[in-house]
Amino acid sequence: MGDLIVTLPALRLIRERWPDSHVEILGHPRLAEIALKRFYLDDARSVNHGPLSAFFTPRAVLDPSWMEYFNDFDLVLSYFYDPDGLFEQNVKRCQPGQFLTYSPRVPEDFGRPAARHFAGMVEPLGLALGADAASEIFPATDDLAAARAFLNGLTPGARLVAIHPGSGGETKNWPQESWAQLGRRLSVEFPGVTLLLIEGEADAAPADFLAEAWRDVPHVRARLLPLPILAALLRETQLFLGHDSGVTHLAAAARRELPIVALFGPTNPEVWAPPRDGVRVLRGDPTIRNISGEEVLAAAREALR
Fold it and tell me: Which is nearest to 272 in space by CA: 113, 116, 134, 110?
């Protein structure tokens, strides 16, 4: 999800240059839903369709329907990992108007926001990012209504503080015990706060732990919500705390004014932190476990006050 969100600035350039064009993504539709019919994309198709695998095979017999699919496009842009150029060769056999490919991996010495790397794809088209490399998401009316319905029943005037205790890897996660203590302290220091516990597919264990630890703390559990509804829900929060993760990028893109506290361990925040104002990075040295609870509490306190 994070990789998709940091490509949105490149998609924004395409949409702004050709506002009436049909833009489609070949990838994971569940993730693409945050951009589908929400400014960026008109359609999405799954990359997991069996006959597509032939496009990654040398001298393959290509599925006619997929050949027709690629032939229909005036421009095909590929971030697929394609070290042998097989996908490129096979797509070109379908004779689309133009084919461009770009590395899906940000160089280790890049030292700038990842969005600027991915925007390199469209530079041959005369498109370039200006000073603003931030991603932005535009929830649909139904997304916003679903978020309001989810929050129906909260105490009027409650201040939502979103916490996502997971990420794509264990080394990126702050200890769940530390999150538990932080949530309790925020609840004591700011009596009007309700914690929003965000749970993705890989977050069941820390989410269960925190739900139990916060059983007497005002909180709601956002469990496996569709990403567009989660983005709309994050627009209603006053603060987001999380890790180097796709959900942190989602929060930053959902509302530009939302304060973000992002806890980083081994990865480089110059590349992977959302590149906009209001994002505060706390980095553990040498691991994320070295970030103290007092440090995170102070950052949260400053944002809430």
Answer: 113
